[in-house]
Hints:
two-stranded antiparallel sheet, 4 helices, globular, Hypothetical upf0131 protein ytfp, five-stranded mixed β-sheet
Amino acid sequence: MSNSHYWYLSYGSNIYDERFKFYITGGFCKFNNKVYKGCTDKTWPLPNKAKIIHHEMYFAKHSKSWGGGGVCFINPVPDPKVITYCRMYLVTKEQYEQIWNQEGKSWYNKKIIIGQEDGIDIVTFTNNEVLPVTKPHQSYKYVIIKGLIQTYPSLTLTDISKYIS
């Protein structure tokens, strides 16, 4: 399996599985009113699990899909003083490439291997440089909050509020 799969590490809206599923299955996403093609292989990734990394998450760019607000990126350079709450999905390498294409390789132009879990590479993508910060739209923050509650049930709403801001 280590040769055919990746742990796709999500850290923004994809931390919420109800949002992420559109990259796999395709269809109309009610959270951002966008239609997704989905992957050729529409098999839902099992397992998935929480993962904390030491790359700073921030909001940047202006996404038309998310009310013109910023979307999540991570600093490609690790920083042991920061934490980012993530969720990993075990996907095929083909699914990973198709997810990356749907996200947009012009914005997310750098693949990062974070490490390994169970002998399988943990991979994500971000921009190759740290971009100017922009405020996210409330609808985008809402989906991230839903994902944090789902993935990290021990976090309080105060913890989540501090983290998102």
